[in-house]
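Re: [ENG-882] Designed sequences occasionally contain unexpected residues at chain ends

Forwarding the minimal case from QA. Structure tokens:
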């Protein structure tokens, strides 16, 4: 028997030896060292492991692994097991669908529910629990932001939102799906007997040592309850602005703006454009022990140990406006307001920016200059805006074409004129292959336009001005518009015209 600490440069890989699934239950793992299969155990589960090994006729060398390394290898075994079972059920479902045999489809699903690996609880858990856990696991693996569960007349359906687009995952018998919905309501502390009114809840799951918060929304529909689960990530998962794809020039300008001790920085864009991620990424860059950073959000999407976060709860009167008022009595240096939705919140946020606080917030506008006119429409005074707002960042998340399967596209003449594309330039379209999960796209990249409120803009704000005039001023001051960046992506073959049309950028 050898202690792992005595061996160096070990590549711990999963070895699926005979009956490895039973061994897994007894915390006995198999791996390779110098091309030889060895048995891996840990002191934490020593009695269980040795009890199992004493009943087996195995001649492999036994090594001890420290607890952290053992857990990592154990997680690899669980992922391998789950992947295999999900692959089997997907293939089985496809075959039964092609044959038109719905009974076989339900049978294969039922078999999966009996044998699937449980990510978060013991192996003896009920089949429905295992299936719900596998849904979470697959969602994390596919990097989806939301899980949609829908009930129709005769069937249920699970879809994942991946890269901003819903992708079908699996179909189930309606009876099974009803049990799945009930399980989700149980773990979210919702009333399983109440099916007439909408319900909102939260739950937490742990996968491979990583805890994730899930926001759950249940809505009664004609054929049954519909569930949408939003996966809320931890602060450790927040990408930097550079990793998001935002240009170096804009990130440098934003860094200068965040060095101000007071003022407001706004991030705008439609739902799902990554506004919250950008705000938290900015907060991470300025976070320090010398600053008191407080946020009020709905929901708290990224939990952080270094930032004080307030969850909006309108049922008890904790709104953005009331939360913001309370924050001002907590001696903050930096304030983040999840969203400016009304005149009251906007007025308090502006006053906070004027009285010595650095304020971050979001608005739902399509272009950066439109944020100014939106706030004016809310009833705020021009002189307040010119004195408080430092800059406005508008952004979108654009899907990137899969380089493995993209094909040249033929563009209609009216689109060539509308998007100012030369007819001699090659433009590509999405096709779909195994590498991109047959979507034609792989990942997303953020594009952004930054409208800095300089002296000239402040002067123009004293008079009546519209979005078009503000847009022209911003471009004259060096702002690269979203339209220009999208056209560059089209010309470079990074995205498709259909994606640009879907995003509504012109």
């Amino acid at each position: 028997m050898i202690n792992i600490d005595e061996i160096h440069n070990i590549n711990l890989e999963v070895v699926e030896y005979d009956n490895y699934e039973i061994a897994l239950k007894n915390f006995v793992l198999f791996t390779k060292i110098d091309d030889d299969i060895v048995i891996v155990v840990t002191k934490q589960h020593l009695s269980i492991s040795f009890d199992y090994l004493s009943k087996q006729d195995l001649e492999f060398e036994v090594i001890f692994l420290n607890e952290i390394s053992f857990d990592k290898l154990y997680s690899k075994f669980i992922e391998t097991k789950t992947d295999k079972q999900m692959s089997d059920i997907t293939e089985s479902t496809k075959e039964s669908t092609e044959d038109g045999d719905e009974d076989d489809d339900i049978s294969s699903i039922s078999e999966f529910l009996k044998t699937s690996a449980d990510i978060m609880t013991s192996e003896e858990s009920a089949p429905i629990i295992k299936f719900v856990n596998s849904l979470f696991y697959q969602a994390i693996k596919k990097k989806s932001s939301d899980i949609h569960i829908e009930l129709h007349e005769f069937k249920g359906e699970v879809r994942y939102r991946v890269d901003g687009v819903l992708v079908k995952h699996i179909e189930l018998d309606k009876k099974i799906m009803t049990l799945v919905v009930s399980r989700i309501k149980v773990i979210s502390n919702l009333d399983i007997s109440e099916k007439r009114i909408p319900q909102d809840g939260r739950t937490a799951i742990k996968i491979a040592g990583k805890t994730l918060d899930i926001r759950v929304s249940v809505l009664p529909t004609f054929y049954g309850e519909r569930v949408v689960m939003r996966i809320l990530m931890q602060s450790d998962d927040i990408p930097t602005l550079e990793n998001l794809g935002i240009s170096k020039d804009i990130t440098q300008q934003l860094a200068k703006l965040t060095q101000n001790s007071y003022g407001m920085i706004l991030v705008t864009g439609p739902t799902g454009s990554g506004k919250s991620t950008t705000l938290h990424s900015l907060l991470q860059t300025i976070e320090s022990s010398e600053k008191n950073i407080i946020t009020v959000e709905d929901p708290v999407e990224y939990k952080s140990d270094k930032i004080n976060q307030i969850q909006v709860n309108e049922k008890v009167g904790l709104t953005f406006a009331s939360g913001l008022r309370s924050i001002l009595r907590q001696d903050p240096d930096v304030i983040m307001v999840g969203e400016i939705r009304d005149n009251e919140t906007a007025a308090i946020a502006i006053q906070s920016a004027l009285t010595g606080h650095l304020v971050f917030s979001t608005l739902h506008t399509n272009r950066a200059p439109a944020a100014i006119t939106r706030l004016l429409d809310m009833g705020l005074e021009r002189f307040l805006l010119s004195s408080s707002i430092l800059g406005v960042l508008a952004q979108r998340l654009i899907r990137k074409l899969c380089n493995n399967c993209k094909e040249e596209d033929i563009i209609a003449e009216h689109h060539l004129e509308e998007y100012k594309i030369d007819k001699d330039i090659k433009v590509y379209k999405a096709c779909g292959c195994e590498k991109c999960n047959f979507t034609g796209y792989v990942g997303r990249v953020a594009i952004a336009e930054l409208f800095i409120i300089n002296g000239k803009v402040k002067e123009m704000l004293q008079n009546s001005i519209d979005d078009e005039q503000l847009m022209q001023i911003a471009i004259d001051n060096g702002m690269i518009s979203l339209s220009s960046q999208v056209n560059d992506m089209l010309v470079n073959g990074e995205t498709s015209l259909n994606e640009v049309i879907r995003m509504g950028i012109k």
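QA comment: On inspection the terminal residues look reasonable. The chain has a mean pLDDT of 82. Proposing we downgrade this to a documentation issue.
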